Amino acid sequence: MTEKLKVAVIGTGMIARAGHVPAWKNLSEKVEVVAVAGTDRERTERFARTEGIPQAYTDWQKMITETKPDIVSVTTPNSYHKEHTVAALEAGAHVWCEKPAATCHADAAQMFEVAEKKGRQLFICQTLRFANGARAAKELVEAGRLGQIYYAEGFGMRRRGIPRWGRFHMKEHSGGGPVYDLGVHLLDRVLWIMGFPKVKAVSSMTYTKFGNRDEGIATLVEDSGAPLGADFPRPFDHRDFDVEDMAVGMIRFENDIVVNFKVSWAANAPDIWSTSLMGTEGGLELDPLRLKTNVDRYQADVSLRVPPDRNVAFQGHWAAAEHFLRVLEDREELIVKPNEVLTIMKILDAIYQSAEEGKEIAIR
Predict the structure, then answer these.
(1) Domain match, 256 and 149 both
(2) Phi and psi (nearest 5°) for 282?
(3) Which residues contact 11 (CB under 8 A, 6 or more apart)?
(4) What's the pLDDT score for residue 234?
(5) How far apart are CA 35 and CA 55, in angstroms?
(6) Measuring CA to CA, how many Å separate 304 from each of 17, 123, 129, 146?
(7) What is the pLDDT of residues 155-167, one digit of tens each?
(8) How far apart are the first and last CA of the chain?
(9) Pair (183, 203) in one structural domain
(10) Looking at the domain assignment, is residue 97 inside a domain?
(11) Dihedral angle of Cα 100, 105, 108, 114, to the nearest 10 degrees
(12) Most buried of 10, 40, 42, 286 (most Cβ within 10 A)?
């Protein structure tokens, strides 16, 4: 019998509990989660007991040294991704890291350089690619159903959905707000479906209109991206909020392609989660998947019957973990490629730079 791969998890927050750990447990015939590390001892030990993880650490470096994991899941706030990932790679582990890869392109590039040097796999959890609808959309584009794509857009709008259980709202820890939380997913999905055209420039604006004031409005934790709720939430103080709560912008690519985006944690607008693409032969809407096309001389709307995704929270993590194991077994090529992740990081850097400087930022 082949020995199971050992997984160690850094971080005890919502995405560790609802995304990473369940995804690895789903692969229990091949994988065992052997340890978890967090900053608070009581919280970490409770997390380990609840999830059936044998060992709990408050020193993540000690955990890596003592357990010698084959895979390290990095689920910490964005500002710590680089430190945790590089250390795990240097120790000989493969790394499964939450998105965004880091808080700047330079740090992400260094992470991939270490992975290549050490001969290890670094996977960034761009999990929207693993939804059946997204895969079907990419198949349609690659089959030429849309013709030449010239415009696309992605919207991720929450009316009141500021994460209040962690450090999402603190720049020191997260680096940014909904651009890093939602925008990274939307942009990665639409560019992957399009085949990652070469980016030329970014123009954007960011706003902080709600997060830094106490509105006294009743909200649900589920509305802020925690479908299973959040264990051990830290007290939220609006005076700590120093990131954007909304961002809008336009990205220009070669061949006159434009992608518009709009993301928010809070806005006086309906909740929206949508992606659409326009081409010379057809248009495409996701969530649900619909094709706008012509049949002979008639316009036609086609609703595609895509197999449903598994009915679990963060199902994309489940599908991505299965894929990652097949990569480690040399049965598949990595779907989320380093150059694609680094392109997204260049765009995210430019979004913030453009908003700060009030001008379009060229990307080379």
Answers:
(1) yes
(2) 180, 165
(3) 36, 37, 38, 73, 74, 75, 76
(4) 79
(5) 5
(6) 33, 30, 17, 15
(7) 999 999 999 989 9
(8) 50
(9) yes
(10) yes
(11) 170
(12) 10
